[in-house]
Structures are given as C-alpha cells and as structure tokens.
C-alpha cells in the first residue's frame, strides 16, 4: 500500500475511543489533550507494607520477652506523660479575688499619677528623696503585735551554751574522730602490755 488506509484508521479510532488527526495540521491537532483518558491505577504488592510492620512486631516481641520491664515505673512514666499533655492542652485560668484586683488597680493608678505628674517650671523631673523614711498613710489601731504576729511579753528561752551529746556517743567532727582514734590506740597498747605481763 502506497497510501494511508483512512477507513481502517477510522475503525480503529472508533473501537478504541480515539480520534483521527488531520495530516499536517499542527495547531488543530492538540496532541497533548487529556480528554477521554481514564485514570489508571497500579496496585502495589502488600508485602512492601507488611514486611516492615512484621519486623517491628518481632523486635517488640523479643524485647517484651527478654527485657525485665519495671511495669510500675512504666506506668508512672505514662501517667507523667499524660499529665504533661493535659497541662499543655488544658490551661486553667486562675480567678483572682476582688480585694487583690482592687489593690492591683490602686497601685496601677498611683504609678500612673506619679508618672504623668507635670514637673515644676525650671526644674528637672521630680525624683523621690532616697534618705526619706517610709511613713504609713494610715495608723494601725490596737496592739501591733497581734497584726504583725511577733513581739510578746514572754521571755525568749536562751539556747544551751554547750552541745549536749548522750554518754558513749561518738564525738562529731574531725577533732572527735581524732580523739576516738587516740583512745583506741591507748586501749590496744594497754591490752598488749597486759598480754606481755601475763606471759
């Protein structure tokens, strides 16, 4: 055959769902179109997934049988890890009491008043006197020892002058250990002398 068999090509295109291209028509051919193409799938063998999983299970099985696990420590570790996850994920907000919030607001207002107080003419920013003593704004009514919880009229017992140790107790410190060694050496010398005199 010296020419193309158009009828055979058309039958092949109809049977396979293809299309006929016009010869030498490059722009209208649209060769790389994906119309009518079916999505193909190439399944992988299941061994590629199962073999690593089975190897991990074998190693875990050998570890459980051969290693002496401390199950109590393992439970404590798991509980600590769970507690850390709970602490990280659940943040509880601490509710401040009303007196604390009022005191904080008052301090903030006092600081703001002092910070934005206008300076006197011809002077630098007013600074507090470092030699000034602190004076409370309001007086304390009643006995101050009940407020502070300290000073009372009862005399404070004095501490013992020497260190009291029970009889026969070994002396503490370097000096005590040296004295104990000296006593033992003297006893050994006495025992040796008594042994020599008995012979």
Write the layout of secondary structure elements.
Layout lengths: L5 H11 L9 H4 L17 H20 L4 H19 L8 H18 L28 H5 L24 H26 L1
Summarize this entry quickly.
The chain has 199 residues and is mainly α.
Structural class: mainly alpha
Biggest sheet layout? none
Shape verdict: flat
Number of strands: 0
Radius of gyration: 49 Å
Number of helices: 7
Cα distance, first to last residue? 141 Å
Strand content: under 5%
Helix content: 40-55%
How would you spell out the order of helices and strands?
HHHHHHH
Calculate the mean pLDDT score and round it. Answer: 77
Written account of the structure:
The structure is a single chain. The protein has 199 residues and is mainly alpha-helical. The chain has helices at residues 6-16, 26-29, 47-66, 71-89, 98-115, 144-148, 173-198.
């Amino acid at each position: 055959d010296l020419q193309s068999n158009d009828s055979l090509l058309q039958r092949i295109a109809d049977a396979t769902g293809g299309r006929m291209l016009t010869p030498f028509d490059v722009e209208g051919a649209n060769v790389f179109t994906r119309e009518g193409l079916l999505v193909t799938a190439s399944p992988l063998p299941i061994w590629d997934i199962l073999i690593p999983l089975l190897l991990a299970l074998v190693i875990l099985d050998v570890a459980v049988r051969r290693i002496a696990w401390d199950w109590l420590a393992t439970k404590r570790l798991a509980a600590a890890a769970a507690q850390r996850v709970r602490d990280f994920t659940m943040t509880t907000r601490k509710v401040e009491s009303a007196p604390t919030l009022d005191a904080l607001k008052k301090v903030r207002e006092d600081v703001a008043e002092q910070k934005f107080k206008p300076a006197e003419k011809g002077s630098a920013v007013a600074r507090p006197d470092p030699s000034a003593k602190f004076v409370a704004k309001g007086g304390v009514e009643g006995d101050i020892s009940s407020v502070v919880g300290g000073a009372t009229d009862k005399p404070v017992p004095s501490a013992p002058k020497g260190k009291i140790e029970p009889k026969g107790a070994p002396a503490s410190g370097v000096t005590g250990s040296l004295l104990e060694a000296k006593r033992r050496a003297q006893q050994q010398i006495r025992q040796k002398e008594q042994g020599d005199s008995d012979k």
